[in-house]
Amino acid sequence: MHDIGKAIDHEFEGTHAELGADFIKRFGVSNPKVLNAIASHHHAVDQQSLEAIIVEVADAISGARPGARRENVETFLRRVHDLEDIAKSQAGVEEAYAIQAGREIRVVVKPEAIDDLASIQLSKTIAKQIEDTMQYPGQIKVTVIRETRATEYAK
Q: What is the largest CA-CA distance in the chain?
């Protein structure tokens, strides 16, 4: 709710924090802690409670996640493609998918080309290459999937 002002900041003058606090006040929210938490999450006004500080911290954490900021969309998409390209460049890899907003990559290998032991080594190799060549927030989980299916029909 602290960013509700973003829905109307293109129509009115002021920051989304100020507009959001005014908006919810007009619709009956009168709790001073809630109003202050919304109005102060970008320091437009002084924070007056622990809740206001928590909202500011949560907003910063949320804004730091991959893909959160509009201006970073190109960078985010490039990072996702780079993750997939690193995995796909390895021998025996059939397909790779970056998931969880680029915080995990799932690598599907050809079971006839990669055995179980090689799957473990491949996950380490990909993780090391990601560490050495990319910049990213947090950590990236590398999961290698090796699957063999056998089907027979009883007649």
A: 77
pLDDT digits (tens, 9 = 90+) for 7-48: 876 777 778 888 888 888 898 988 999 989 898 888 778 899
Segments making up each domain of the chain, as ranges:
4-64, 70-146
Can you tell me whether residue 71 is helix, strand or coil? Answer: helix
Q: In which residue are the tokens 């929210």 written?
A: 29
Q: How far apart are CA 13 and CA 97, in angstroms?
A: 42
What whole-number distance in Å separates Cα of residue 153 and Cα of residue 155?
A: 6
Reading phi first (left if > 0) and then psi (alpha if -120 to 50, else beta), residue 43 is in: left
> By the 8 A CB rule, do 9 and 16 touch?
yes
- Which CATH code is given to the segment(s) 70-146? 3.30.300.30
Is this model's pTM higher than 0.85 or not? no
For residues 32 and 57, give the distance between their C-alpha atoms in angstroms, rounded to a whole number.
19
Other Cβ atoms closer than 10 A to 69: 12
Q: What are the phi and psi torsion angles at 91 (to 5°)?
A: -65, 135
The helix (H) or strand (E) run that includes residue 97 is strand 93-99
